[in-house]
Amino acid sequence: MHAYPESCVEAAFKEHGPGLIRYLTWLTRDAEAAQDLAQEAFLRLARELEAGRSPDRVDAWLRRVGSNLATSEARRRQVANRHEAALARRVDARSPESIVVSGELAAQVDALVGALSATERHAVLLAAHGVNGTDIADAVGRTPAATRTLLCRARAKLRQGMNLAGYATA
């Protein structure tokens, strides 16, 4: 590197900065990204100089570093773009209002299920988890016919409670 009266990096920036930025703008087709990449290249030059390593041709070294940074950034963006759709699907796109309403609905259902008798609650929860009627009857100690009646009455209580709370049920 030349012996500059000012700091070496500042002098290198004055001499090679505009050309490097033009090159990186051409390479990336993005003036803002080119500015960022050039800044990073000069930061790396400063680190090299602090470590006692001085490139023979600063302009060529800066272009190579800038080009490598642009390539790395393009790869990073390519990976991000490839996974963007999957990440967007994971984000809860519901509105804050719908989240609050869902929470209120869940609280109402919990309260109504909690108001059922222990046998009704047990039978309804087993049915909600897909357990068949015969197995539910065995679990609650009733006949299958009595269990069907128990489930019908428990579900009717739940529907009535939801209707009274202002939630439409089918």
Question: Any overview of this molecule?
Answer:
By secondary structure, the protein is an all-alpha fold. The chain has two domains: 8-90, no CATH class; 96-164, Arc Repressor Mutant, subunit A, CATH 1.10.10. Helix content is 79%, strand content 0%. The protein contains seven helices and no strands. The chain has helices at 8-28, 31-50, 58-90, 96-115, 118-128, 133-140, 144-164. Helix 6 (133-140) crosses helix 7 (144-164).
Tell me the number of structural domains. Answer: 2
Q: Would you list the SSEs in sequence order as H and E?
A: HHHHHHH
* Major pleated sheet: none
Multimeric state: single chain
Poorly predicted runs: 1-6
Q: Structural class, judged by helices and strands?
A: mainly alpha
Radius of gyration, taken over Cα atoms and rounded to an integer in Å = 34 Å
What is the tally of helical segments?
Answer: 7
For the record, give the distance between the C-alpha atoms at the N and C termini, rounded to a whole number.
Answer: 80 Å
Strand content: under 5%
E-strand count: 0
Question: Helical residue percent?
Answer: over 70%
Chain-averaged pLDDT: 86
Inertia-based shape: rod-shaped
Concise synopsis of the structure shown:
The chain is built from seven helices and no strands.
Which terms summarize this structure?
170 residues; 2 domains; Arc Repressor Mutant, subunit A; mainly alpha; disordered N terminus
